[in-house]
Amino acid sequence: MEIKEDGRGRLIAGSLCSRWSPTKMPNIEMDIPNKPSMHKARWRWWAYLVLINQDVVWSGIVGSLASKTAHHHTSASPAMELLFNLSIELLIFGVIFGLAFFLTRVSIEDLLLQWRGVIRPVWQGIFYAVALLLAIPVLIMLMLFVLRILGVLAPGQMMDIFAAGRRGTDRLLDSSALRHDRIFFWLALTLVSFVFAGFREELWRSAFFVGARALWPQTFKSRLGQVAVVALAAAMFGFGHALQGSVAVLNAGLIGFVLGLIILSHRSIWPAVIAHGLCDAVAIAMNAYSHGS
Hints:
The chain is mostly helical. The chain contains ten helices and three strands, in the order βββαααααααααα.
């Protein structure tokens, strides 16, 4: 990848991806050496990474150790219980990320929070969501089929893997409530899919890129280095879905890798946020329908 210097002394690199998106991919500007926010002490950036990654790592550890138990219901309605849990989770997320951002003074530009275009991020997100929903399940099935042919998976193990994935999904969202409580269903389809998952997780991914860029600027100057950082974030993202089973870990890792490329290619998190939210909304709706049928 060719790297050159522009008139303001900034390093300009070619686009991370080939132009496979429906729009022209903007170049990625690597102006790290001249950005004041990137000149903080390294310990601040290490503390920043520890803070922003604790939720993903903790989710993976808890998911790996979780027993196959059902939901613990309270006297509150499922919708109110969901709202309460989401409020607590988002509050904790806001406090931890606020502390991380205070340590490093990252900006909206650093986090790629700019909305580029009027409706362009929306239809870009829709395009990517459709592509992911069509491609990722096929890819996972092919991988499992290859493992079956190679003898790594026994004949009945594939069904066991998918059954475990369904049980893992039930631990996150009560399938009975999805079918019978319309408020719960629409909260899951909107607030959970687009805010709690889409925005929160893509903000984490962008924040992870900022920390990696600050700590390893030379690595981030090359296309291979950027892809490696995207892959590392995707692996952590997949691990964070351990509660939902091995298929969910693989699915989240693959989707996370593509979403990372989308963020860096468009220099904005919003196409990835919308694509992520749509993928989760479709998965939730299909989960409710499949249990109902």
